[in-house]
Amino acid sequence: MSFRSNRKGKGKGKEKQEVIDVSKLYKMKQEKVSAWTMKGLVNVISATGLSTISNTIDESFQEEEQREITSEWEAKLAAYRIFKNVARPAHKYINVEDLQRFLSREEVEYLLPFFGGAAETGKIKKSALRNWVVKAYLDRKSLAHSLNDTKTAVNQLHKLATAVVIIAVFVITLILTGIATTQVLVFISSQLLLVVFMFGNSCKMAFEAIIFVFVMHPFDVGDRCVVDGIQMIVEEMNILTTVFLKFDNEKIYYPNSVLATKPISNFYRSPDMSDAVEFSVDISTSVESIGALKSMIKMYIDSKPNHWHPNHSVVVKGIVDVNKMNMALYVNHTMNFQNIPEKNSRRSDLVLELKRIFEELSIKYNLLPQEVLLSYTGSTPLPMAITQSLV
């Protein structure tokens, strides 16, 4: 895949196509990227989309009109085309040999962990490739929106600063030229006091919003955040307001001056996050069974190095009513919770694996015997058989 943009070249009506080679981009070191190169990257990301056709896949596509991915559906279609051109005919996966036709061995080893299960098997399934391309499109889209919103905010701040400078230059010019007499200065001062009285609170809120956006800057467009206990995604950032999107696509507008006073949790900027699964087992469960449970959980986690870090713990939290033991499994994801569907999918697989282990080890939980009291309010006596059974 590659990024491209069209810009005006020399001559009337001529356009020059600018292409960024991802392989060269990968070799760049962050601390050595020049300002000119960074400006070019920002322009390309802000104004273009992800190319669906790469010259390294199939030369026959060079004759076709190049397109850009503008939706998730087009991203899935691009993944299908890539799979069709890279995988061997009638194969349901892309293996290492297929990738080495286009990439070096080091690049293949770096690439495989990005696809679910490919690092262990050396095979990339069509579904894994599709998910990766869609994720690349969504990440690029969020980055482009973030850059555009930042540029808009900077332009708004520039206009505000320009207005303040013009007013200051006008007043200084009047003073230096001698036009500003005492009466004029008194008049201007009275008008400034009136403006401060009317818009003082608004100016204070605007100043706090500017500090929040450009100094604190706790999130970018596309980040998943928690504000007031509500999990939302940042949809749009402006100087005075930020637009959030809830899980049901409801938009919430927050003044930035209000957000500056609230604690904000940012999943995207968080490191790999932990998770917990709590469960209860019967008090009669043997120590050997619990040991086997821990061993099988360890085997499962070690078999999913792309999903879980190896460090985990199974602990007994307490004994309740001399009947059950409350236990918990603490695990560490290899990701943060920015991608909630993926996080929920991994947790679901873990819970299902726990269920399978419980069934295999015959680990159960039984309720305490319950006392049942029966009363009869009818006018006729109970049959003898029922009376004897109750006695």
Shape estimate: flat
Rg on CA atoms, Å: 32 Å
Q: Could you spell the SSE succession in H and E letters?
A: EEHHEEHEHHHEHHEEEEHEEHEEHH
Number of helices: 12
State the end-to-end CA separation. Answer: 82 Å
> Could you estimate the helical fraction of the residues in percent?
40-55%
Q: SS-based structural class?
A: alpha+beta
Describe the structure.
It is a multi-pass membrane protein. InterPro entries: LSM_dom_sf (IPR010920), MscS-like_plants/fungi (IPR016688), MscS_beta-dom_sf (IPR023408), MscS_channel_2nd (IPR006685). Its main location: membrane. This is Mechanosensitive ion channel MscS domain-containing protein. Keywords: Membrane, Transmembrane, Transmembrane helix, Transport. Among the domains are: 23-137, no CATH class; 274-361, Alpha-Beta Plaits (2-Layer Sandwich). The protein is 47% helix and 19% strand. It has 391 residues and is α+β, with helices and mostly antiparallel strands. The relative contact order is 0.06. A hairpin with a 3-residue loop joins β13 (313-320) and β14. It contains 12 helices and 14 strands.
